[in-house]
Structure formats: C-alpha cells, structure tokens
Task: inverse folding
C-alpha cells in the first residue's frame, strides 16, 4: 500500500484517494439515526494501555461491548468471591465517553466455572441449587451496574444448529425454562435495562426457526426481551446478502430489535489441525490487493443492507477493533476488520464510509421524488462545504419543517429556498434529519404543496 493514500469503492471499482480526505471521518457521525455503531474492546484498551486504540475507539464509536470481563468466570471465579476491578474499568470507560455500554454476557455454557454446576457431594448440582446460583450471579452483576449498562446479553448461544435447545449444563440441570428464568432475574435486577438473546449462524433456517420459537415463548410468558443479537461471524461469500436480508426480516417479524453484535469477516479457510501451513495460513505475508477489494465490497454490501433496514437494526458492533485484536487469528494471520495491524484504516473502512454516505443520494427517490431530471448528488463530497452559517441554519429549519409538515414550512419563503443549493439540501434532508417516512400530506389550501413544488424545481 502506498503511504498517504487510500482506496474507496465506487460503482466503477477502486479509486485511489488522498488519506487526508478520510482521516476526519467518524463512523458514528454517518450512521442512520437510532443505529449505534460499536466495538468489542479488550482490557488493554479500556485500561488505556493501548493508547492508539483508545483514540480510534473514542473517535469512531458510540457503543462498546466487553470481550471477556463481564462473563461469568471473570466476574465470579468462585462461589464466595466476585471480582469486579476490570469490569468496573470497562463500564467507566464507556460512561466517561457517553457511550452506550453493553453487558456480555450473563448465562452461557462456556467461560463458566465448573463449580457452578457441581453439588456439595461432587455430583451435578440440582435444579434449585443452579437456579439459586444463577439468580445470585445475575442480581449481583446486573445490580452493580444498574443505570450504567444500557443492555445485557442475558443468554448466549442456547440453540443448537438443528433449532433445538442446546444440551448445556444449564439446560440439563434446570430444564428448558432456564432461559426464561435468566430473563426474569435480569429484569428484577435492573428493570430499565434492555435485555437481549444472542446467537450465531442465524442465517441457517433451522437454527433461526429455533431462535424465533424461543423468543416467542419468552414473549408469551410476558417476560421482557428487547432484541435479538445476530453475532454475524461471516465469510467473504457466505452467507449471501439475500440470506442475511431474509434472516433480518424474519427476526424483526418478532417485533424485536435486531442487532449485529460480533461482526467480522473471516478470510481464512477451515482446515484440520496439522494442515499444510501454506493452505491453513495463506496470507502469512500480507493480504493480496484482490482479497482486500473483496473484503471492502463485502462490508459495503452488508452495510447497505443495514441501512436499508434501519427501521429494524439498532446496533452494529465489530468484534474487535483491528486485525491485530481479532480472535480469528488463533496462531494464523487473519484480516477480518476495518483497521489493519498498524491501526490504519483499510479499504474496507472506506467502503463502509462510502456505503453510509451514499444512503443520502438514494433518499429522494426512496421518498417518491421520481423526476428524471433531478441528477444524483455526489455522495463522497461534502455537500455543505460551501454553505454559509446562515444557509445551514435555514436548511436545518427547512428540514425540520418538511419532516413535520408543520406551519413553520409555510414561513420559509420561496425566495429563501431558492438561495439554497438543491443537492446540499438533499444531503441535509437525508443525512442528519434521516426521517424514516415521507412527510405527511398537506391540505390543498395550506401552502405546503407550493413549497414542495419549489423544492422539486430547485432540483431541476
């Protein structure tokens, strides 16, 4: 890669751009309203040891998840002992930066001490013992961060690939209702916290059906559940965009929020232990440009899908900040994230930025402005760069008035509207305002129709 230069995805392919054009871009400023963008952070990051990472996290994201520090084993290593020092620093990191802080996770078959499932006689613990331990753990952990943690992954990975309940120690010891009990206890501990179910491979129909069945059971029990977390550990070509789309629609049909909670794109093959290193670790000396471009296109595709369903998707969280931080390395060299090992933004970062910016140019057509003479706005330039403060203020007034179809729109005179650049007005309308539906139809005598005609004329 040439230092000081970057790549960006366009309809024609990859175009070389100056790094200066992207160094000030923050993903959190480009996300649709109501959709958080986050990252799972490790201990070196939330303790401030990895200063370079802290700078990127603070600038780019408005949500954080913990990689490990809030799981059962780290927070309660023994029956009579809790350990919150690291977890406290994680939570404070997010609170200090006014981020949405997520807790991950409360009940899981992994990273839970063996003592949890053992009875006093060395035999498996009975139902009452396990329920008491679960309740004590959830009340203690969730209660400690009441009012600070926005939402919890209450139960993680409880469904098997065939859609049945996983035969975990929790399920075996308590029964199928252990999930309902976990949600019940979490709500008791913090009635204001959002509660989620989190799992992977939801693009597989049988597993997805099992998750939806589980969610509907919780809803039938009148238990609080706010969202479904789709971990989104994907590959370059699987699942397909259509499969991701179908999954999103079906998950949202439950009436719950959909979140992409552990997003990364695995570039390495599945190989058995002892496989030829050239096969198992094909990018040990760096990622070829062709694969970089494929990764960028993959990220652009999925972010376009997220934006398309912004009424359903409320959060996208990357599982790790940079390639160096990814759990997918595991002794090999993987490249699944938006920043490389030197914490430089990759072409995939530029592709995500471009996908988020381009949602603006698509907005007028999406809202019914079909005039063929309205040429599209160039989404990778700043439409507001040449505006005066007075024009920006007028534009914002106009956007709010248009969005609300209120009397303020009538007070913005036609000659004022003509002072605005039409394409910049479109950018403002479809960007920061980011309303999800067309404005209400005005009465024929209200004068609003004439103002709408003016806007259409400005685009010609």
Result:
């Amino acid at each position: 890669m040439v230092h000081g230069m970057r790549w960006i995805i366009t309809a024609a392919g990859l175009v070389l751009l100056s790094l200066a054009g992207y160094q000030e871009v923050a993903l959190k400023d480009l996300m649709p309203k109501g959709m958080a963008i986050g990252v799972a952070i490790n201990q070196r990051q939330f303790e401030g040891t990895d200063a370079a990472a802290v700078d990127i996290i603070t600038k780019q994201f408005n949500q954080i998840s913990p990689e490990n520090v809030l799981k059962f084993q780290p927070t309660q290593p023994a029956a009579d002992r809790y350990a919150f020092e690291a977890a406290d620093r994680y939570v404070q990191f997010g609170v200090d930066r006014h981020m949405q802080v997520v807790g991950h996770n409360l009940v899981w078959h992994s990273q839970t001490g063996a003592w949890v499932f053992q009875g006093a006689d060395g035999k498996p613990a009975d139902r009452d013992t396990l329920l008491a331990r679960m309740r004590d753990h959830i009340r203690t952990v969730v209660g400690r961060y009441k009012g600070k943690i926005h939402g919890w992954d209450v139960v993680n990975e409880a469904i098997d690939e065939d859609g049945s309940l996983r035969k975990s120690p929790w399920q075996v010891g308590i029964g199928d209702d252990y999930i309902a009990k976990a949600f019940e206890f979490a709500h008791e501990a913090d009635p204001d916290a959002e509660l989620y179910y989190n799992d992977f491979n939801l693009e597989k129909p049988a597993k997805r059906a099992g998750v939806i069945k589980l969610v509907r059971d919780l809803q039938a029990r009148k238990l609080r559940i706010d969202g479904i977390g789709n971990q989104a550990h994907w590959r370059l070509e699987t699942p397909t965009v259509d499969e991701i789309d179908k999954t999103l629609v079906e998950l949202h049909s439950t009436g719950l929020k959909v979140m992409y909670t552990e997003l990364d794109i695995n570039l390495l093959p599945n190989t058995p232990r002892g496989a030829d290193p050239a096969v198992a670790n094909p990018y040990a000396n760096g990622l070829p440009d062709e694969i970089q471009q494929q990764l960028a296109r993959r990220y652009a595709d999925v972010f376009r899908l997220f934006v398309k369903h912004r009424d359903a998707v409320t959060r996208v969280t990357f599982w790790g900040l940079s390639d160096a931080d990814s759990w997918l390395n595991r002794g090999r060299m993987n490249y699944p994230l938006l920043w490389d090992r030197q914490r430089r933004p990759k072409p995939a970062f530029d592709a995500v930025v471009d996908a988020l910016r381009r949602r603006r140019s698509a907005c007028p057509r999406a809202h019914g402005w079909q005039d063929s003479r309205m040429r599209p706005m160039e989404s990778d330039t700043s439409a507001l760069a040449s505006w005066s403060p007075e024009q920006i203020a007028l534009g914002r007034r106009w956007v709010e008035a248009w969005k609300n179809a209120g009397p303020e729109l009538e007070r913005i005179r036609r000659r004022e509207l003509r002072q605005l650049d039409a394409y910049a007005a479109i950018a403002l309308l479809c960007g920061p305002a980011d309303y999800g539906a067309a404005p209400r139809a005005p009465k024929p005598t209200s004068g609003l129709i004439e103002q709408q005609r003016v806007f259409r004329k400005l685009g010609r």
Remarks:
- The first strand starts at residue 5 and ends at 10.
- Confidence is low (pLDDT under 50) at residues 1-23, 360-383, 405-415, 426-448.
